[in-house]
Write a structure and sequence with these properties.
The protein contains twelve helices and 20 strands. The protein is of the alpha/beta class. The strands form five sheets. The protein has a seven-stranded mixed sheet with strand order 5-4-15-16-17-14-18, with helices on both faces. A six-stranded mixed sheet has the order 9-2-1-13-20-19. It has a three-stranded antiparallel sheet with strand order 10-11-12. α2 crosses α9 and α9 (about 310-325) runs antiparallel to α10 (about 330-360). The structure holds flavin-adenine dinucleotide. InterPro entries: FAD-bd, FAD/NAD-bd_sf, FAD_aromatic-hydroxylase.
């Protein structure tokens, strides 16, 4: 942090837990609004990994307002081809991601693109303290006080829990995760592959779906493809305790010709594999006094919504604007929640609907999906397809 970047004397302090997309966006927005943010991150260093992000809607607008849009690449490959893979591994034309949704632009990004651009925007402005997290939180009329796991104590005007779906801030202030987590009967696995599969061209996207199973390979400009698998199980919490390679081999046995086994091999070679259950977070309030939840900790929508990162940024940017507009904290936080909740509710509902597009629940869903994709070659079908992929 350089001396020229010091916030004005007497600036209000915000303690932000988590240096993911939401936490970094909150730090940038609040610093711009004259606050003095401090980020606390549990990981020992920057978390730079992650998967694909379809970036449009409120997050896109907020990124523009924050002045970071021009630094964000569009990794869509204009030469890219999209294929559906049938049960025997044969390829048919698939759906590509549109450049616009409802007249508003969309970019294909990686989570690491967003993280890097936000990190670079705050690195000289905001202190990030790694390797620690909240152990206890108390608050009174004037401040919120956090005892950290390294024994230090920090006080602030506002505490922002941007610490993801398994938020400690939420557990400490709002209660145990079980009260707020709604599990889908899905498990997700994803990894960055070490290159395209044999026979695939750079830029090719492959999708194989069957009732209760789906496998995707998404390709990007200047980046290796990302493999992404979803499957249905009655006991996702038990499933994710299994060794990922064993669970995936069992779940995808006999599926997708040679392509899915090759994806599983690529996952076995990968150093970092996401293997988790798919859940949403639902709370009736996102703030209590001087403590506010932001991003996945408050409203995790699942990857099916395609808006998780975007809403973290949109929520952060709106928060800073309302804190400037209303000097009074309860009014600002109340107004923030009132304005965001309809959008979050809509995206959470859309995620429920979209889960059938990502992975058909039954044979009829599979047929409906195939029909839609075949119809995408007609003008009406193309519009429908674009609406779905957006
Ligand atoms: C496969 C996949 C595809 C997705 N696709 C999209 C998409 O197309 N579009 C989209 O917008 N979103 C998408 N998402 C969702 C998106 O990635 C998340 O919604 C978003 O990254 C959440 O950001 P966050 O900062 O709120 O939480 P996180 O990214 O979870 O960050 C939380 C941070 O808090 C830290 N932390 C946790 N606990 C503590 C603690 N106790 N103390 C201190 N620090 C702590 C963590 O280390 C982490 O750095 C996708 C997700 C997945 C898995």
């Amino acid at each position: 942090m350089t001396s020229s970047s010091l916030p004005p004397q007497g600036a209000r302090r915000a303690l932000i837990v988590g240096s993911g997309i939401s936490g970094l966006a909150a730090a940038l927005s609040l610093h711009r609004a004259g606050w003095q943010p401090l980020i606390i991150e549990r990981a020992p260093e920057r978390r730079t990994g992650g998967y694909f992000v379809r970036f449009n809607g409120p997050g896109y607008t907020a990124a523009d307002r924050l002045g970071i849009l021009d630094s964000l690449p569009d990794r869509r490959d204009p030469e890219g081809r999209a294929f559906e893979v049938d049960s025997r591994g044969r390829l048919t034309p698939g759906l590509t991601f549109p450049e616009q949704v409802n007249g508003t632009p969309m970019r294909m990004l990686l989570r690491s693109d967003l993280e890097r651009v936000l990190y670079e925007a705050v690195q000289d402005l905001v202190e990030i303290r790694y390797g620690t997290g909240p152990a206890a939180i108390t608050q009174d009329r004037d401040q919120v006080t956090v005892t950290l796991t390294d024994g230090s104590v920090e006080s602030a005007d506002l505490l922002i829990g941007a610490d993801g779906i398994h938020s400690s801030v939420r557990s400490l202030v709002f209660g145990p995760e079980d009260l707020y987590r709604k599990d889908f009967d899905h498990v997700v696995a994803a990894c960055v592959m070490d290159g395209p599969l044999p026979g695939m061209r750079d830029g090719d996207t492959l999708v194989a779906t069957a009732p209760g199973r789906s496998a995707w390979i998404n390709s990007y400009r200047d980046h290796p493809p990302v493999a992404f698998l979803l499957y249905r199980t009655d006991w996702p919490a038990a499933e994710i305790r299994k060794k990922p390679s064993d669970a995936l081999r069992q779940a995808f046995a006999g599926f997708g010709g040679d392509i899915v086994p090759a994806m599983l091999e690529a996952m076995n070679r990968s150093e970092s594999v996401l293997f988790d259950q798919v859940s949403q977070i639902h709370l009736s309030r996102w703030s209590q006094g001087r403590v506010l939840l932001l991003g996945d900790s408050a409203w995790c929508m699942t990857l099916h919504s395609g808006q998780g990162s975007g809403m973290g940024i949109a929520g952060a940017e709106l928060l800073a604007r309302l804190l400037t507009e209303h000097g009074d904290l309860p009014t600002a936080l109340g107004s923030w929640e009132q304005r965001l909740r309809p959008l979050v509710t809509r995206y959470q509902k859309e995620a429920l609907r979209m889960r059938h597009f990502f992975m058909p629940a039954n044979r009829f869903g599979r047929i409906a999906r195939s029909t839609l994709i075949r119809a995408a070659s007609t003008p009406v079908g193309a519009k429908l397809g674009k609406a779905l992929m957006g």
